[in-house]
């Protein structure tokens, strides 16, 4: 039995929220409903978990497996004390549970592990697309999540990433970005 993709789960959660509201959504910034909605949709402070050193562009990978290996290696470079094979295994296990393919060429592999010291975001932009669940992808946005993370902060970041990727203008700009600094600035300035 095929598990529902992460993206479908997130999309369903957001569309269920709007259906349950029983109100007509408008673009009127003075509408009290929209003031509440815009506050709810504010993104997290990405400057806390993403630095330009955590972004790599023009990366070569020929398969899902190779990209997950690269992410594990990159994670070990960013945080000392991580076991590359263990992190790689965690990525594989996560993909077996539910695909992290968000569509539109983006995957969101993430792990929760007791060896991860701090919540960290990594972004990989490939130089050529690869196949992932019968779709071509060229970008991975990854979260390394400590097992003992207080307040489940990673959930807010996953939601913020999902909300940003629902915006066609953000996705387009992300696809067009060519440097780690551009990608980092896009996430950090997403609340402005």
Automatic annotation (TrEMBL):
Residues 48-190 form the PTS EIIA type-2 domain. Residues 22-31 have a biased composition (Low complexity). One of its GO terms (molecular function) is protein kinase activator activity. InterPro entries: PTrfase/Anion_transptr (IPR016152), PTS_EIIA_type-2_dom (IPR002178), PTS_SugarTrans_NitroReg (IPR051541). Residues 21-42 are annotated as: Disordered. Transmembrane segments: none annotated. It comes from the Bacteria. Pfam families: PTS_EIIA_2. This is PTS EIIA type-2 domain-containing protein. It comes from Companilactobacillus bobalius DSM 19674.
């Amino acid at each position: 039995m095929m598990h529902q993709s992460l993206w479908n789960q997130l999309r369903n959660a957001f569309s269920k929220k709007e259906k349950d509201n029983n109100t007509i959504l408008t673009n009127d910034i003075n509408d009290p409903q929209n003031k509440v909605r815009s506050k709810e949709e504010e993104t997290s402070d990405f400057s806390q978990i993403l630095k330009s050193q955590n972004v790599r562009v023009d990366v070569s990978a020929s398969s899902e497996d190779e990209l997950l290996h690269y992410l594990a290696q990159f994670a070990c470079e960013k945080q000392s004390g991580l076991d590359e094979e263990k992190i790689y295994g965690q990525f594989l296990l996560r993909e077996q549970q539910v695909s992290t393919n968000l569509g539109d060429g983006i995957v969101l592999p993430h792990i929760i592990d007791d060896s991860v010291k701090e919540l960290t975001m990594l972004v990989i932009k490939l130089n050529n697309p690869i196949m992932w669940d019968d779709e071509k992808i060229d970008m991975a946005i990854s979260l390394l999540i400590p097992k003992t993370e207080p307040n489940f902060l990673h959930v807010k970041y996953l939601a913020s990433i999902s909300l940003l990727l629902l915006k066609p203008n953000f996705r387009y700009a992300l696809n067009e970005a060519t440097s780690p600094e551009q990608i980092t600035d896009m996430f950090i300035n997403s609340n402005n």
